[in-house]
Amino acid sequence: MKFTRRNFLLGTASSSAVASIFGAVSIAEAKIVAGSSSSDRKLIFKMIRTLYPHASFPDGPYERTTDDVINKGNADAGKMIMMRDGLRDLADASFQGLSFKNATSYLKSIEGSAFFNHVRGTSVVTLYNDKEVWDILGYEGASFDKGGYINRGFNDLDWLPEPRIEEHPDHANFFTATQKRLAAVNQNNINQ
Predict the structure, then answer these.
(1) Rounded to 5 degrees, what are φ and ψ at 112?
(2) Closest Cα partner for 31 from 76, 63, 85, 64?
(3) How many Cα atoms are found within 13 Å in the side-chain-facing hemisphere of 123?
(4) Of the candidates 74, 57, 60, 55, which has an alpha carbon nearest to the alpha carbon of residue 122?
(5) 51 and 107 in contact (C-beta within 8 Å)?
(6) Does the pTM exceed 0.85?
(7) Helix 38-51 crosses helix 100-109 at what angle (to 10 degrees)?
(8) What average pLDDT does the chain have?
(9) Residue 164 CA to its chain's centroid (Å)
(10) Can you say whether residue 190 is alpha, beta or left, with left for phi > 0 and alpha for psi between -120 and 50 degrees?
(11) Closest CA to 36 of 79, 67, 63, 64
C-alpha cells in the first residue's frame, strides 16, 4: 500500500472514530512513550551500565538514570523518534545479550549518533548527580551554604600520602649555591 496524504488522513479519522465509539482515550490524551516497555528499559539500563561501569554502584542510580533518559527522550516528537529508532537498533544488534567487551565495541560504532549522544549526555549528569552515588564516592555535596571547603574538608585527603616537608638534597644544594651567588653580587654592588 502506498503511503499518501489521503491514506494518512483516512487512517487518522478512522482511529479517532473507533476511539470515540468505544469510549477509549481521546487523541489529545493519548501519549506514546518510547522506551516504556520493560525490554526497552533493560536495553537503556545495560547501555548506561556499559558506558559508566562501576561495580560498587547498586542498580538504583542506574534505574533512576534510565528513567531520566526515557523522560528527556520523550520531551518532543523528534526526540521520541530518535529514541524509538535507537532502541530498535539496539534490539536488532541483540545488545542485551552482548558481553561487556562486545557491548562496548557496539557502542563505539554508534557513538556519533543522536541516540548515543542523548543517552551519554543525560546519563553523565544524572548518574553522578545522584545522592546515593555521592555517598558511595565520598562526595559530601555542595558546601557553599556551609561556609565553603576551607574549614570543612579542604585538607582531608586521607587517601593520599602525606606531603614531604623537607627539601630534597639536590634542591637544597642548588638553592644554597644560588643564595651564595646572589649574596656575592649584592656585596659587590655595595662595595662599588
Answers:
(1) -90, -5
(2) 76
(3) 19
(4) 74
(5) yes
(6) no
(7) 90
(8) 80
(9) 37
(10) alpha
(11) 67
Helices (H), 52-113: 59-73, 77-92, 100-109
Buried b / exposed e over 154-176, threshold 16 CB at 10 Å, is eeeeeeeeeeeeeeeeeeeeeee
- The one-letter amino acid code at 108 reads K
Handedness of CA 136, 142, 146, 152 (dihedral sign): positive
pLDDT at 156: 66
Give per-residue pLDDT as tens, 162-176: 766 676 666 666 666
Are 47 and 95 contacting, i.e. CB atoms less than 8 angstroms apart?
A: yes
95 in Cβ contact with 59 (< 8 Å): no
Please indicate whether residue 55 or residue 6 has the higher confidence score (pLDDT).
55
Q: Which of 123, 77, 105, 96 is nearest to 37 (CA)?
A: 96
Counting every residue, how long is the chain?
A: 192
In the 8-state DSSP scheme, what is residue 95?
A: G
DSSP category for residue 75: S
- pLDDT band of 191, cuts 50, 70, 90: confident
In angstroms, the CA 33 to CA 40 distance is 11
